[in-house]
Amino acid sequence: xxxxxxxxxxxxxxxxxxxxxxxxxxxxxxxxxxxxxxxxxxxxxxxxxxxxxxxxxxxxxxxxxxxxxxxxxxxxxxxxxxxxxxxxxxxxxxxxxxxxxxxxxxxxxxxxxxxxxxxxxxxxxxxxxxxxxxxxxxxxxxxxxxxxxxxxxxxxxxxxxxxxxxxxxxxxxxxxxxxxxxxxxxxxxxxxxxxxxxxxxxxxxxxxxxxxxxxxxxxxxxxxxxxxxxxxxxxxxxxxxxxxxxxxxxxxxxxxxxxxxxxxxxxxxxxxxxxxxxxxxxxxxxxxxxxxxxxxxxxx
Length: 300
Fold this sequence. Notes:
Blueprint (H helix, E strand, L loop, with lengths): L3 E8 L1 H15 L4 E3 L12 E8 L3 H17 L8 E6 L2 H11 L3 E3 L3 E5 L11 E5 L11 H16 L5 E5 L5 H9 L4 E6 L2 H13 L6 E5 L9 E7 L2 H6 L1 H7 E13 H12 L4 E9 L2 E8 L2
Parallel strand pairs: 6-7, 8-9, 8-11, 9-10, 11-12
Antiparallel strand pairs: 1-3, 1-4, 2-3, 5-6, 12-14, 13-14
Helix pairs in contact: 1-2, 4-5
């Protein structure tokens, strides 16, 4: 295990939930929230969000929070003052926290997410996903991931089964595994620019017995080749805006695109950008906890 860090953000109350949600999605385990009422209290008028992650990831995670704060500020949210600090963490403390927060849970109508160390007796029609996030991000409990899972389930009732699927920014592989469980005949290509993520993704795919139908590569969206009936992208607003032309090129005729990782106001702006040239049309959208998913379709 890489050296771990305890990363703490001191933020105004109006931004605490967004920062906590972002970190939960990225680091793959729970975060601790401290305020004036908790045993370990924060400063007056602020909330402290504490997370544990590999020391090498600290600059990236801080940069992601900076980007989130800038977006929230543009939308009129009070984000100042805020600050961050990090220190070396005890791996045993991190592991205990990790297992305390990550429990078996039902996501939507059919998916059941189970950490590898727990047991669960499946019910009829359950689609079980076993997951060990390790040091990659994405436990599936964040609203943005749950919204994509709901969209996948909805697609089974809206359209024919996709034969080819791309999971861009696959993280721990939960979306690829979910797609493989829903559509046994599909071939899935998962990519992420983080080698730690793709390593964990491969382990989780093998854990779920779908390694013969999912390929995994460490690469950027720009390096992805081929055309797909379905493209999944659960990323930040800034990244989704930047790779818009790339994702469009990767969609086959009548293909579907699922975009998530967006706070509601950002989803509206992103939908306009993606549908501006009249090649893509919006099909469905849903909101949960202030986050929104978009399902788009190619006209022809």
